[in-house]
From TrEMBL:
The lineage of its organism: Bacteria, Bacillati, Actinomycetota, Actinomycetes, Mycobacteriales. It comes from the Bacteria. This is ImmA/IrrE family metallo-endopeptidase. Gene3D superfamilies: 1.10.10.2910. InterPro entries: IrrE_HExxH, Rad_response_metalloprotease. PANTHER family: ANTITOXIN HIGA1 (PTHR43236), BLL0069 PROTEIN (PTHR43236:SF2). It comes from Corynebacterium pseudogenitalium. Residues 165-291 form the IrrE N-terminal-like domain.
Amino acid sequence: MGVLRVDIEPSVLDWALRRTGLSDEKLRATFPKVNDWRSGEERPTLNQAKELAKKARIPFGRLLLQAPSGEETDVPDFRTVRNERLDGLSPDLQEVIHSAEARLGWYSDYAEEVGIPGPEILRSAQDSTSSILAARQARIALGFDEAFAIPGPERVTTLAHQMEDVGILVSRNSIVGNSTQRHFSIDEFRGFTLIDGEFCLVFVNTSDAKTAQLFSLAHELGHVALGKAGISDHSDHLRVERWCNEFAAAFIAPETAVKERYNKKCSLLDNVTSLASVFGISREAMLLRLKDIFLIEQQEFDEVMRLVRVRKEKKATQEGSGGPSFHVLVRSRVGERFFETITFAAKSGQIPERDAARLLGAASYKSFENLVKKSDWASREAEYLGSKFQLIGD
């Protein structure tokens, strides 16, 4: 009996190969005949097709369709490479978006039912609005003084908490759910924003350096202010992304605060290094900020940028052994506001606990119970929702 082979439509084959996330070199190592499959000279064996489906994280039957289907999201994609829109989303990115959509969908329905107001900053600006003015207004809304940098050694956490305090769901993660084997790539995306009616959620890829995470969080806040959902990568080829980049720079490093701290007696490189540390952004971002607020000329910018790029930004430490406890990680991954709201709803009988466990990513009921025990709701007799987030309407 001959070897059983599988007919796969060229468009489906290309789609499945892209979904694996493997480079051409790794594809050839995994599937030595992949170029022959693409050219049509040879068909994959049944076992090879099954392995391809496994690598692409799709049911085997989807390889037998006439065309790719059912993989995309409705979230606008603002990512670009060399001025061209990127084609498709990886399975990991699709999964995290779908999970975030489920959390936001539940929160939106629940919030409307119990009278939780949406964040006032949502849709507070238009792309015709000055990004500088919008950033200044956002700082006021979040309680940050225009004359100072975002305080504290953990600026990302500080900003995330302030955003949650005004009603924005904030999720931060470097992996898919709780799977330490599936890490996000910063080459694919930096963050995204979802909007459901009067409510919103922002997600930041924490695989990046802390300075980049802070910029990403502020960038997504810009998307919230505009009321424009989307997947971001910090490129400035599209108008919305350019506006959000300008917003983020002005939000993190206000012109008044930067100029007050700029020391004309020091070299430009020393100023850039010092100011980047003060405001918590990369030296590249600070150098660009100095040019944008007309403290330096283009020639100075070009000269120092070459020096700055010699030293690469230190990458954020990946989560692993010796890191935060599980409940601390879950709080960060789903966001404080969502965590406290859903544990309150579950223990007060407003949502089945199995549904709450699923939305929190808890693998078992015991795991869910342990998470609930660590909630502020449990330790403060449900006062958390009313006092901190003002979730219950007057």
